[in-house]
Amino acid sequence: MSGGKGSKQQAGGVSMAAMRAHLESACIGYRPGDPTAATPPAAMSPAGVPPPPGGLKDLDLRQMTMAQLHAEAAATQTRDVFAALLPDPPGVAPERIAYVTGHGPDESGAAAMAQALSLKCDICGVQLRSVKEAQDHGDATGHAAFSESIEAVKRLVCRECGKTCRSETEWDVHSKRTGHQAFDDKTDEAEAMDTEAQMKAAQTEEQGGAGGAGGSRPGSAGGSGEPEELVPAEVDAELLKQIEEMGFPAARATRALYHSGGSSLEAAIGWLEEHQGDADLDEPLMVAKSAPKKKLTPEEAKAAAAELIKRARERRERDEKEAERLREQERIRAGKELALAARQEEELRLKRMVEQRQREKEEEERARAKIRAKLEEDRRERRRRLGLPEELTEEEKEEERRKAAAKAEEERRRKLPIKPVEVGEKMRALLVGMKKAHPGQDEGLKTCWQTLLKMCGNVYNSPGEDKFRRVRLTNPAIQQRVAAWTGAVDFLQLAGFQKDDSGENLEMPEDKVNKLVLEVAGEQLNSALSNPFFGVL
Q1: What is the pLDDT of residues 193-206, one digit of tens each?
Q2: Using 50, 70 and 90 to split pLDDT, how confident is the model at 226?
Q3: Which parts of 386-514 fold into alpha helices (H)?
Q4: Quick check: 321 pLDDT over 90?
Q5: pLDDT at 97 over 70
């Protein structure tokens, strides 16, 4: 990108001087006014002859942008890097510009670059819409290499709130945060950038903040309108002495060091070459007392850059967390919707099944009614053939009712479970024997019977639970409450438990669970616990 004429103080991260230095880096081998520098090569012919060796031998063509190519042409033809970058470069061979920049003899490099739609950071590749954004980007990242681009910055404008998003990702985050769905893509409406004018405006703004580029003017300080005390500009005394020894007046040397940033002798000489026609070049430089800022040391600059990078990283992490939060909300919402849809589908399926079953029952009932009607008609027909009345007599009806009652009673008795009486008697005998074997220990015996009742009840209520169907006899609690009492283990074996091969555990296979036996065991234990005269007789 080209730079405007004038000086630029360091301000934050990226300055006009830094941008200009980026362009001058394309012409390392040649420095105007340096007698020791290589002589610039002859003009290039339009036939496309390769550039001759000489002042541009150190130029790295692989890293050159359009602005740097233009700078090469300026260095080759005018010995002034920035002269050829102005709208009307004096003394530049058109054919040389055409070869270097790729434009015809009737197009100047500046005119071609005026069609740029954005600025691109040569380090990270981010696209920016103005010189001001480039400076802000440099403040945040420390990057100082930019070039013009004909690719417009993406502009997605929300129709509801007017927010401008620069990428699909940014729009996606905005849409999820606000619920806005409609946007207009105004990328194609981007206007060509006037980089030269923007750089001059930025340069003028910084010069105003520093007391003026061409000298200090009595005037406002920070736009307040109140005059501020002016003092002589302070520069590096060692560099000032070196420039004076080269034959430059003190005022001119002071201006060169002050406006070039005071970083090097080469920068000051370059500034003098660029501003040798200024009318106030030999006047003493006066600046506002509060305007000069202390130049940062390399360590301070590094710390400031690290702080800016840290803030950018934290901002990026916050954005990523917000995007992750929105994605999680969307995932939960989608999951709830899917669960609701599945539940509604299941309810509809069950409803259809119930309706189908009801239709089948009604159809079956109609078929049975039809069969009963047919049987009744057959019965009446048989009675007519036998000479009997079609309707049954009272005696016949009574006989039919008696047969139906007998059949129902037989069915009820067939379904009624038969309790194992013999097992119940054996269990009662064991409980009576336990009471007689432990006289005077009613409380301990009661605890034993309660434990047996609980164990049998657990198996009866949850026959599928393995933990209820397995008793470890070595368990201290089981030893104290069950195994220590005579007949307790035998009672469990009558209820269906069996000892394993080791003899240390009682197990009841699931297929051997007999609820009738467990019910009898519960009745005997309840009788022993509730009857105060149990086992007395």
Answers
A1: 777 777 777 777 76
A2: low
A3: 394-415, 421-437, 442-461, 476-478, 488-495
A4: yes
A5: no
Question: Between the CA of residue 345 and those of 179, 342, 350, 355, 357, what are the distances in Å?
Answer: 29, 5, 9, 15, 18
> 275 and 305: one domain?
no
505-507/470-472 β-pairing: antiparallel
Reading the block at residue 409, the tokens are 């009673």
Q: Which residues, 6+ apart, have CB-to-CB distance to 255 below 8 Å?
A: 215, 233, 271, 275, 281, 285
Spell out the residues 6+ positions from residue 498 whose beta carbon is closer than 8 angstroms to its own: 506, 507, 508, 509, 512
The 10 Å CB-count burial string (b at 16+, else e) for 389-402 is eeeeeeeeeeeeee
- Tell whether 63 and 149 lie within a shared domain: yes
Structural tokens at position 222: 């920070």
- 308 within a domain of the structure (yes/no): yes
Last residue of a domain, one of 262, 288, 314: 288
What's the pLDDT score for residue 77?
A: 47
Q: Alpha helix (H) ranges present in 31-79?
A: 66-77
pLDDT at 120: 83
Q: How many domains does the chain have?
A: 4
Residues 6+ apart with CB under 8 A from 330: 176
Q: Which of 369, 388, 415 is the last residue of a domain?
A: 415
pTM of the complete model: 0.27
Q: Which domain holds residue 146?
A: 16-153+190-197
Q: pLDDT tens across 135-168, in order? A: 888 777 777 788 888 888 888 889 888 888 888 8
Question: DSSP of 207-247, one letter per residue?
Answer: HHHTT-SSS--SS-STTS-----EEEPP--HHHHHHHHHTT
Distance CA 159, CA 175 (A): 11
User: Which structure tokens are listed for 481?
Assistant: 């409450």
Which has more confidence, 288 or 460?
460
C-alpha distances out from residue 31 to 249, 283, 460, Å: 21, 26, 103
According to DSSP, residue 51 is labeled: P
Q: Maximum distance among all alpha carbons in the chain?
A: 157
